[in-house]
């Protein structure tokens, strides 16, 4: 896994911050590792790092990058990462049930009026008649692992359409992309910064929107170890404050577009340090802009969506019937929406 770290505080940028003076001094810094995917949807952490918000909270952050949600949850439980942002997965829920992990906030959300996650068909499947989700019956659907967000989305879409589909676990996002391009799977659903470039390059076809099937879907959450949630409250609150400031900047620049064109350009360049780093900026820029979905203000959590996800996991036998939102979420950190 790739690591990226910065030790300087960037205090000059922080002087312009509009938030009140924070209680934690930025002198004796707490070192912590933040788990992330190289997705635009993880931008709040990247912004908080690059603009010194973590440093101002007395946090010395190192990123650890993953290629799927479940390995990230395992890293949180084992102490290899301190905080992370990713979708609710069966692995995360099971670790919470064992007392090893807790959700402490919300991140990416589907929101009406904002172009969100897409449902894709391979070119071969599209040419054979998979031109909308209504024609998914009998098709294959790519996922990383059983119990992943891709599994949840695919199952909910199929259930709405009355379709019988076959799920193919491929472990990593990159492997799913390769399988879709080559026609080894028929369909997939994913965030727009991946879906739209695939379609624009002629590598797949967009056949629908996830929001039509899962309105207000809480796509990702912020989570940590139970030990951090219970015993490291000051550090955890500092992390969440910095993360929320990063989310505010991201939303203003690329979602609400209220910060102006220069701020939007600066934001895309910042994100490009972490997302599509193998592409020239001019090629990466449209894909990053296309990934601009809402990151919840102040880490608020859509508990209705979380409850729906847990209900699906229980119905599939992927988690115990006794697991509830109280098992997964530490409500003392969370604003409910």
Automatic annotation (TrEMBL):
InterPro entries: SsuA/THI5 (IPR015168), TAT_signal (IPR006311). Residues 1-23 form the signal peptide. Residues 40-249 form the SsuA/THI5-like domain. It holds the Pfam family NMT1. One of its GO terms (cellular component) is periplasmic space. It is found in: Periplasm. Keywords: Signal. GO terms for biological process: alkanesulfonate transmembrane transport. Its main location: periplasm. Belongs to the bacterial solute-binding protein SsuA/TauA family. This is NitT/TauT family transport system substrate-binding protein. It comes from Rhodovulum bhavnagarense.
């Amino acid at each position: 896994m790739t690591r990226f770290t910065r030790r300087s505080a960037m205090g000059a940028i922080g002087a312009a911050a509009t938030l009140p003076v924070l209680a934690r001094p930025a002198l004796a810094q707490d070192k912590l590792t933040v788990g992330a995917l190289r997705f635009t949807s993880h931008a709040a952490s990247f912004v908080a790092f690059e603009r010194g918000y973590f440093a101002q909270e007395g946090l010395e952050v190192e990123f650890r990058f993953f290629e799927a949600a479940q390995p990230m949850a395992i890293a949180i439980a084992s102490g290899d990462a301190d905080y992370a942002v990713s979708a609710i997965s069966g692995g995360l829920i099971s670790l919470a049930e064992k007392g090893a992990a807790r959700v402490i906030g919300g991140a990416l959300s589907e929101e009406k009026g904002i172009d969100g996650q897409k449902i894709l068909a391979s070119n071969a499947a599209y040419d054979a008649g998979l031109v909308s989700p209504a024609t998914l019956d009998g098709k294959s659907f790519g996922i990383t692992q059983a119990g992943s967000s891709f599994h949840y989305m695919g199952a909910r879409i199929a259930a709405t359409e009355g379709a019988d589909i076959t799920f193919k676990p491929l472990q990593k996002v990159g492997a799913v992309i390769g399988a879709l391009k080559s026609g080894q799977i028929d369909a997939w659903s994913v965030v727009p910064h991946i879906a739209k470039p695939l379609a624009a390059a002629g590598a797949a076809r967009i056949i629908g929107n996830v929001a039509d099937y899962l309105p207000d879907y809480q796509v990702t959450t912020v989570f940590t170890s139970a030990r951090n949630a219970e015993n490291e409250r000051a550090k955890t609150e500092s992390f969440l404050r910095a993360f929320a400031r990063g989310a505010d900047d991201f939303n203003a620049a690329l979602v609400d577009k209220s910060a102006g064109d220069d701020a939007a350009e600066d934001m895309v360049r910042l994100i490009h340090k972490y997302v599509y780093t193998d592409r020239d900026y001019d090629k990466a820029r449209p894909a990053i802009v296309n990934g601009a979905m809402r990151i919840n203000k102040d880490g608020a959590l859509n508990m209705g969506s979380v409850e729906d996800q847990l209900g699906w996991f229980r119905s599939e036998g992927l988690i115990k019937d006794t697991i509830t939102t109280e098992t997964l979420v530490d409500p003392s950190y969370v604003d409910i929406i």
